[in-house]
Every structure is written in C-alpha cells, then in structure tokens.
Design a protein that fits this description.
alpha+beta, Amidase signature (AS) enzymes, 8-stranded mixed beta sheet, 14 helices
C-alpha cells in the first residue's frame, strides 16, 4: 500500500503519476478514520462516505483528461473547526453556535480547495479555540496519538492527532498561543507558526489590531509543511497587513548548507519558566543534532536588559490577549441564560477585557515594541533561537489544565504555556520539531517538541534549518504512535 505510509509530497507525486488513484487514497483514508477516530476523536463533522468517493472519482477523471488542480489534487483534508468551509458546520466547539452550515469558505480553505483537496470534515478544537487542551461540550475531548489517556494539546489538537495517526496526509491549524506548536510537539509531528501576515486571516472582524493569531501548516515532514504553506500564503487585499511575497516561493527545494548557523538556546530563561522534569534534558539532547550539522549552539537569555524582566512581557501579553479575546467571547455573553454554557476560562477572558483601558493597551503595545527591538539585537548574534514547545508533558485528558508545575502554581489557565508567547508577541516565524520522548517516570514514552524561532519574515530559512534537523534525525522522527 502506497498510502498512508508516505509523506504528503510523495502522495502528491504518486497521484499525479497515477501510481495510486484518488479513489484508492480516499478509501484508505476512510479506513484509517474508521480504525483510529473512534478512540482519538480527532475528526468531527465528517462528510458522507459516498459523497467523498464521488468527489475522488471526479479528481481521477480530471487527471485522465490531463487536468490537475495543483499539489493537493485528490488529497483528503479536514479543516480546523474554527474556520469556515462551505457546507460544513463551524461549531467553534461551542453548544451555542447551532447547526448552521457555513455558506462560503474562509480564505485558507478556499486556497487549499483550489489546489485540489477534498474536504472530508473538520478537526476538533477547544471551545472558542481557548486553551491548549482540545476538549469541548459539542464533540468531547481529542486524545493524544501516543497515549489515549493524555491530552492532545491544542488548539489544533484534532489536526495534530489526525496527522500522527495517518488519517490525514497534511493538516491546517491556527496559532495564537502555541496552537500549531504545542499539539505538534505532543504528537511528534511538525507545526509551523508563520510570520505574522504570511497567511492572511480572511474573513476577520478586525484586520488592523488583531495580529496575534495566524493560520498555518502542520505535517509529518518539513517538506509537507513548506508545500502546504506555499498554498496558504500570499497577500490578499482583504488583509491589508498581509505579506506581499508569493506563497509559491515555499515550494522551492529545502536542501541547504546550514553549517555555521548560530543557535541561541533559551532553555527555561535562567530558571524563570518552571518546567516538568525531563523537558529541558530532552530538548538539549535534540540540540546536539545541530552540532553534527556544523552549527554552533550557545546558551543565552532573551537579552531584555534592566527594566524589562520576562514578567513584564507576560503582563503586556495578558493585556493584548484579553483585549483581543474578550470581544470574540462577547457575542456569547449577550444572553444571561447562555452564560452557564460558556466555559469559565472564556468568561474570565471576557470579564478581564472589560477592565482594560485604551491607555493600558497602548502601554502594553509599547512594551511589545521594546521586546521586539530587544529580539532584533539578539538576532545580530544568532540565526535562530531555540526553546521547548511546552513546559509540561502531555497531561491527563480529564484535567482542564495544569494547576502547577513542580510546585509552582499557575495563576491563569494558560500560564503553563508561557513558553510559546515570545514568537507570537514578536510576530516571528516559529516551527515545532520533534525533540524526542520522556525517558522515565510516569511520562515515559510521551513526545516533546522543540521550538525554533526564526528572524523576521525568515520563514524559508527556518524551514531549511528544520529540514536539515529532520534529515539528521530521521530514525527518531519516523517513529509511529502505538498501533499506527
């Protein structure tokens, strides 16, 4: 069987060379879903099998006429349940959204469909996309691909698990606070948060201020991530701050000589970030791969200097997050009788946002600006910064979020993911690569990811370095979840 044991890029070539038909790919996909999805609950709102087979036959007929829609021709694809796809529900994981079908595609979905993919359903996400643990009252929890008793991460948890369990060849997701990176790390795949503006968010309620969240690609190989980015990326007039570079640039070969590149290892920021046992050691072991590639790794801090401790960055982050998330929750708060149907974490974000002033947001924006400028100085010394993709190993699926890390209490529902805010806050490209597995204790065998943060708009150079890392670690990266 050619598929699903190959990468998405190899699958695309196999389809176009007619080594495998779109019908065969769809049949195998549906078999994988039947085998794995009942336990993992990664895919939701699935389309009718007969309809999907007819669409696959249509793709085969196009190829028979010498017509290809693009790289994703005939590929089964499921869109994250925060984005619109015509004919599918966009539930946002909330019981308040009803059963209304989307009337049109979001930009990301439309670009992937234009490249030939067949949308088979949606991938599960947390309610309103909040929290790095994929569970909601509509579909339930998505379970980790490596251990069904553990969290899949989030908010792109369904996408990550579907990829790891070979139910999808490639997947889309979105990232505000690590939502492409945390689930990638916890399911042993790759997840790229592109540079801010690289993948336009259309439609959007606000296109000027809401610049912390972005959509992006996930894959089982860096090449797959780059190819999906080549389809998702590119300027759009409805997103005035989107980057002008044509997405096709990311379809270029990734092979390069990375010798001499300088990697700054941030670790736990000199003890500032609490980490579960084994997280730092696993990521440091992964960093050794860069030595074999001729890179130079050096331990460093964020270089913030006096008057700007990491806590100040976190406080500014909280203001920005509450200012942007609160209005998203607000429509659900209009009717008092609905309040009990909204997760408490979402209500908290809304209530905190009501206390903010314009002056507070501008002050937080000034701190964000200073932080970005500090990182620019750091990038004069380093080509890439490295830091763990999470501060904890995948936790019990029944937990809402970690209450403490090694005795350090978490004062918000997302404080345990503070490690991911730095790339987001600076709008920098960041990829989570598989780092390895916990070697002992109760978390033995669970995956962890390593974040690689690139220079401003340096997405392609970052993908090249990640590709070199992948080639140096193929045996580890190609390990599969149990039963897959």
């Amino acid at each position: 069987m050619v598929y699903p044991d190959i990468s998405a890029d190899e699958l695309s070539r196999a389809i176009h060379s007619k080594q495998v038909s779109c019908r065969e790919v769809m049949q195998t996909t549906l078999q994988q879903i039947e085998k794995h999805n009942p336990q993992s609950n990664a895919l939701v709102s699935l389309a009718d099998d007969a309809l999907l087979m007819r669409q696959a036959d249509e793709r085969d007929a196009q190829l028979a006429r010498g017509q290809s829609m693009g790289w994703m021709h005939g590929m089964p694809q499921a869109i994250k349940d925060l984005s619109n796809v015509a004919g599918f529900r966009t539930t946002l994981g909330s019981p308040l959204t009803g059963n209304v079908l989307a009337s049109e595609d979001g930009l990301m979905a439309s670009r992937m469909k234009a490249s030939g993919c067949i949308v088979i359903g949606k991938t599960n996400s947390p309610e309103l996309g909040l929290g790095s643990h994929t569970f909601n009252e509509v579909f339930g929890a998505t379970r980790n691909a490596w251990d069904a008793s553990k969290s899949a991460g989030g908010s792109s948890g369904g996408a990550a698990v579907a990829l790891a369990q070979r139910m999808l060849p490639v997947a889309d997701g979105s990232d505000f606070m690590g939502s492409l990176r945390n689930p990638a790390g916890w399911n042993h795949i790759f997840g790229l948060r592109p540079s801010q503006g690289r993948v336009p968010m259309v439609p959007a309620q606000d296109v000027w201020i809401s610049q912390l969240g972005t959509e992006g690609p996930m894959g089982r190989s860096v090449r797959d991530v780059a190819m999906l980015l080549s389809i998702q990326a590119g300027q759009h007039p409805a997103a005035p701050l989107s980057i002008a570079q044509d997405g096709k640039a990311f379809g270029a070969p990734l092979e390069s000589n990375v010798k001499g590149q300088r990697i700054g290892w941030l670790g736990d920021l000199n003890g500032y970030l609490p980490m579960e046992n084994g997280v730092i050691a696993t990521c440091q072991e992964a960093l050794k791969s860069f030595d074999s590639l001729g890179c130079h790794t050096e331990t460093t801090g964020l270089g913030l200097g006096q008057g700007m401790a990491p806590e100040k960055v976190w406080d500014a982050w909280l203001v920005w997050r509450q200012a942007l998330v609160g209005p998203r929750v607000a429509p659900f708060m209009l009717k008092a009788e609905n309040h009990h149907l909204i997760k408490p974490e979402a209500r908290w974000e809304y209530e905190q946002s009501l206390k903010l002033s314009g002056a507070q947001l501008m002050s937080a924006s000034a701190t964000r600006t200073q932080f970005y400028q500090k990182l620019l100085t750091l990038f004069e010394r380093f080509d890439v910064l490295a830091i763990p993709a999470a501060q904890v190993w995948p936790f019990e699926v029944s937990e809402r979020w970690p209450q403490q890390i090694n005795g350090h209490p978490m004062d918000t529902y997302h404080r345990w993911m503070e490690v991911v805010i730095y790339a987001t806050f600076a709008g920098l490209p960041c990829i989570s690569v598989p780092a390895g597995f916990c070697k002992d204790g109760a978390r033995k065998g669970l995956p962890m990811g390593l974040q690689l943060i690139g220079k401003p708009q340096g997405d392609f150079a970052l993908l090249q370095l990640a590709h070199a890392y992948e080639q140096a670690n193929l045996a580890m990266i190609r390990l599969r979840p149990p039963g897959v």
